[in-house]
Design a protein that fits this description.
Blueprint: E1 2-7, E2 17-23, E3 30-31, E4 36-41, E5 45-50, E6 55-60, E7 67-69, E8 73-79, E9 107-111, H1 141-149, H2 168-177, H3 211-226, E10 229-237, H4 239-254, H5 262-275, E11 281-284, E12 289-292, E13 298-300, E14 302-304, E15 307-309, E16 312-313, H6 321-336, E17 350-354, E18 373-386, E19 391-404, H7 410-425, H8 427-434
Parallel strand pairs: 13-17, 17-18
Antiparallel strand pairs: 1-8, 2-4, 2-7, 3-6, 4-5, 5-9, 6-8, 10-19, 11-12, 13-16, 14-15, 18-19
Helix pairs in contact: 5-6, 5-7, 7-8
Length: about 425
């Protein structure tokens, strides 16, 4: 029998490492060729890693929650043939991909919430601060990004993690110790105290913060650290929208499509953003530039058993209400089933969170960095409305706009929400915008 290593292959997308979420096999299991043996989460997605050959599981090399670099051994298999053992796994700094495995063979499991993928570029005669991380620096993509956004030269940091790995805490401590020599960062620094442990038996249960939950936590913390949030709230009379949706439901059902309020809200958001282009934008902190998007890719928050995911309806301004309804249902189903592809999560220019499908009158959502707004829609209720001579029943829905105060002023956000609600309250106006 020969021992062969199943290693983490080159996933592509600029990914150099990931977190081992869980093993899908145990010692002694028989593994077939192309059978998934582990789930690994990167900044982009959670993927199943298949074995390029069959055999019997001899050893699981890592613990769940550990960081694994490209080319590092995950599982050792005993296979038939020569009694020679496999060569040691290549180091992460100079990975060599496993035979017969490529990024195309990796199966997406769940995709994490989108992250800002812009990175500083270097060119002849052009100095960029902070400098691009050297390939010899051991750090996760999220840590490298945090260093860029906080103006820290990661190449000069002595990492405190395993094998000298630079951690997020190392970056934060560096910014606390000294002001960086490059451009000032927008992000404030914080010091997190150590949480005391309750030693009373049974008083606490501690579980690792890992997988999708960990990525959500990191992204939310990053967004709140960088973006000064503020929220505008208002109420809309959606009686006409309610009636319009009901009138379209029979036609949609004949085509096997479930029509919801979300595509109407997307259309109103797009039309209003055309009027206020700074809402369909982002801030490139490294270049100190405002990036105005000429496309409308609308993300929508989807609550799943694996955590909060954000699928994206691409080119939503070119799609009909029925087309968007069908796509939203399909993407939501893929999110719940853990089958979202990487492409399904990329490129959002604005995001909508629909808390109303669960309940709640108002909330203050967190912006999906590097976007500059997130629109919240809430539950529909029946309310009495004074029409000037009598109280009449109406359908009411609350909306919020949470904005990045670096780019958007309060008065501008209030005018944006007013224009948006005018379209929601008058679907005929919305239809004119769509023509």
């Amino acid at each position: 029998m020969a021992a062969k290593d199943v290693v983490l292959p080159d996933i592509g997308e600029g990914v150099t490492e990931g977190e081992l979420v869980k093993y899908l096999v145990k010692v002694g299991d028989k593994v077939k060729e192309d059978q998934a043996v582990a789930e690994v989460m990167t900044d982009k997605a959670t993927v199943e890693v298949p074995s390029p050959f069959g055999g019997t599981v001899k050893e699981l090399k890592l613990k769940e929650g550990e960081i694994v670099g490209i080319g590092k051994t995950l599982v050792v298999l005993e296979v038939g043939g020569s009694s020679t053992t496999s060569a040691p796994a290549p180091k992460a700094e100079a990975p060599s991909p496993a035979p017969a495995i490529s990024a195309k063979t990796l199966t997406p499991v769940t995709t994490s919430i989108p992250t800002h993928t812009n990175s500083p570029m270097t060119a002849a005669g052009l100095d960029v601060y902070p400098p691009v991380a050297s390939s010899t620096v051991l750090a996760t993509p999220g840590t490298r990004r945090l260093a860029r956004e906080m103006g820290v030269d990661i190449n000069k940091i002595s990492g405190t993690g395993n094998a000298g790995r630079v951690t997020r805490e190392d970056i934060i401590k560096t910014t606390e110790a000294a002001v960086p020599a490059g451009p000032a960062s927008y992000a404030p620094t914080i010091s997190v105290p150590t949480m005391a442990r309750n030693t009373t038996p049974g008083a606490e249960e501690r579980v690792p913060l890992k997988g999708i939950r960990r990525k959500i936590a990191e992204s939310m913390q990053l967004s709140k650290r960088i973006i000064p949030h503020f929220t505008i709230m208002d109420e809309a009379n959606v009686t006409k929208l309610f009636e319009m949706r009901n009138s379209l439901k029979p036609m949609a059902e004949k085509q096997g499509i479930k029509i919801t309020y979300l595509p109407f809200v997307m259309k109103a958001l797009i039309a209003t953003a055309r009027e206020f282009p700074m809402f369909n934008a982002s801030i490139d902190d490294n270049a100190h530039e405002i990036v105005y998007k000429k496309f409308f890719n609308i993300g929508f928050a989807a609550d799943t058993p694996n955590g909060l995911l954000v699928p994206v309806v691409k080119d939503a301004d070119h799609k009909t209400i029925l087309q968007m309804s069908k796509e939203i249902v399909e993407l939501s189903g893929k999110a719940r089933d853990g089958k979202l592809a990487l492409e399904d999560m990329k490129g959002a220019s604005m995001t909508i969170t629909n808390i109303g499908s669960i309940g709640g009158n108002y909330a203050t959502p967190i912006i999906n960095h590097p976007e500059v707004i997130i629109l919240g829609m809430y539950k529909m209720t029946d309310k009495p409305h004074w029409n000037g001579s009598a109280f009449v029943p109406i359908k009411s829905m609350n909306f919020t706009v949470t904005a990045d105060h670096r780019l958007i002023d309060g008065a501008v956000a209030a005018n944006f929400l007013k224009a948006f609600i005018n379209r929601i309250e008058n679907p005929s106006v919305l239809m004119l915008d769509m023509m």
